[in-house]
Design brief:
The chain is α/β, with parallel strands linked by helices. 41% of the residues lie in helices and 13% in strands. The protein has eight helices and six strands; from the N terminus they run βββαααααβαββαα. The strands form two sheets. The protein has a four-stranded parallel sheet with strand order 4-3-5-6. Strands 1-2 form a two-stranded antiparallel sheet. It starts with a strand and ends in an 8-residue tail after the last helix.
Length: 182
Amino acid sequence: MTFVIVSPSKPFPTVAFCGWGRAGKDEAGMFLYQNSSMIYHGSLSWVGLPVVAARLKLPQQVAWETRHLRRMEWFEILNEYRKDDPTRLVRDSLRRGDIVVGLRSKDELLACKKQGLMTHTVWIERPGIPPDPTVTYDKGDCDHVVANDGDLPRFFEKIRQWAIEQKIPGVEASLPRPAGLG
């Protein structure tokens, strides 16, 4: 098992939540952050915001608010940012936390796995969500698949069960069943 040292005294596993846009990756990251010992700083879009805003010559707030309308521009700018090191954006994120959300490139994902940056890669599978042209890999490239095929309490229960199975720090002791489940 590979660990990334976020704090010199605390080795943690790292988790990448992957999937098409609107699959539930951010919700999974937030749930794990709020219910474990892991840190979620924000999606890779959040981490890459200063780079994109500077390139588009926009205030960061405007760049963030228009990101879904400019998906391909964001994708191209961040691909350029990591052209010499496909792990660059993930490394930027791991300096701030243990949970990474929104890897886009297959090269990025495979390089992170090869270099041992990600302990777990989890594809969030949500039926009815169309493939995202800014994601160049699929669930077969990830280590785990978690279905988001019901309401949020059921999805969170699946994330909770996955986290317990993977022995994610702090989950067993701290995580009650999500509200709304009988």
